[in-house]
Specification:
single chain, 543 residues, alpha/beta, Rossmann fold, Alpha-Beta Plaits, 4 domains, 6-stranded mixed beta sheet, 5-stranded parallel beta sheet, 11 strands, 62% helix
Amino acid sequence: MPKILIVDDESIFRKGLRKMIASLDEDWEIVGEACDGYEALDKLEEFSPEVLLTDIRMPRMDGIQLQQLAGGRFKDLMTVVVSGYDEFAYVQQSMRQGARDYLTKPIERDELGRVLEKLKLEIQQRKAKPKPEAAWGAQPTVRRHVTEHLTESLLKGKMNDSEIKLLGEMGISFEHPYFVCMVIKLDKHSVEKERYQRNDASLFQLYIQQFVQEMIDRHAKGLSFVLSDTEVIALLNVAEPQQSLAGSGSLGDMIRRQIRALSNMTVTIGISNSVEGLQGIPKAYNEAEIALLYRLIVGGDNLLEYSAMTGNPHMGSGPKKWSWEMLEKSIVEGKQESISRIVEQLIDELCSSAPSPESIHQQICKLLLYYYELSEELGVTEKWLGSKDIRKVLFEICALSSRQELIEQCQSLLSRLTECISKSREQKDRDPIASAQRYVELHFQHSLTLKDVADEVFLNPAYFSTLFKQRTGVTFIEHLTHIRIEEAKKKLAFTNEKIGVIAEETGFANVRHFNRVFRTLSGLSPKEYKDRIRDSSNIHEIS
């Protein structure tokens, strides 16, 4: 019994078709209905019908796009498209994609019967025909897996002679001596969040890969493949290195613009310099990945050439001397509602002024390591990160090339940390000494006395002083001074504020007293400490 899937965004039309097919020929099994292309792909995977009957004009993913994606995944699928009288241009495009027939709305009963009869006969003949001996063309799934394995070997520079021979047997050959690599990445935020979450991410990559390969087949020589759920790779085989960059750039821009026009999605493409021979492909791939990182600075929906990006290392004016004080204050005070806004503001500022993607990642990693140390001190790391190691978190951050994704990842991490710290402190605040320490952390910049804090936790000052020393091992004044000096160190390291201003902002009565206490506790004057920190930071960046 042949199976058919009906796709249309109008429920009443789907139901009408279902009844008409059932009354025309009871041999047909209608395995399901779908309201758009995304739902249809899931149903195709689930039911494996022989025939897809789809409307052309649908929201989100139209029938042409559905046909392109389904054709790559289900080689034996036969498609019939349904169109209005004024949509024949779409019908022509669909027929070029391999549609077996088309029907016009409103569908006439006799015409539908004719199409179904023709398709049923073809299915019966296909099943009666013996299958050919195994060959690359007759094994699309095997071919895809082998191709992915071989192309991954190319990117890693590990391809041997037997694998090169195997590529040739599969019809993949490289006539020219030079290669250019393109890494094509979906700008995830060009897709509605609900649409992206509802669908398998690999479907987006498959659509991009098939489109890229079609463009390569028309305008260049090479191959494309899906490397992961986030990246499509294109290897272009070119004859002249002098012409390769301009040619591939033109092709890349054509791919970018047409994907945007046809699918309402945008992509960003990193493109390498030309390299000679198969042995140069890993270098080209690395260059394309580096170029793509500059999406953090210039934004998505762009073609980013390695030579242009890295040839101008001072794209920005350099990071501004902004600090993370607002963020830290919100985290310490448990103001979760402010975290998202502050993180977005600071990362936008950093990305807009940074000289390179590496400097952005370096600053973000430094920030997260600082809060990791804080979480360790407070004993909330496990609740914050769960089973993840901080190294894995930093690795994921450094793999991001989208500013919006970087913002969202940091918003999620720091909001969760704020929540963990807040809940931890709620439990500890039943303890008067823990409450006193928290009060000091929030108000150290003001004039604070032992009596002020003792009153805050409803204890006699003398008893509070004794209890504080017993519980913490230091006196109240020593604890307060330590917090003020540590905050001063951060300001000396990360801001250009004058030493007198820093002294005032950290609760010291005057700069002379600040200098004396700072030298006693650190062994250096504030200026010496600032100079040493800046020098060591510059040496680290150079190395």
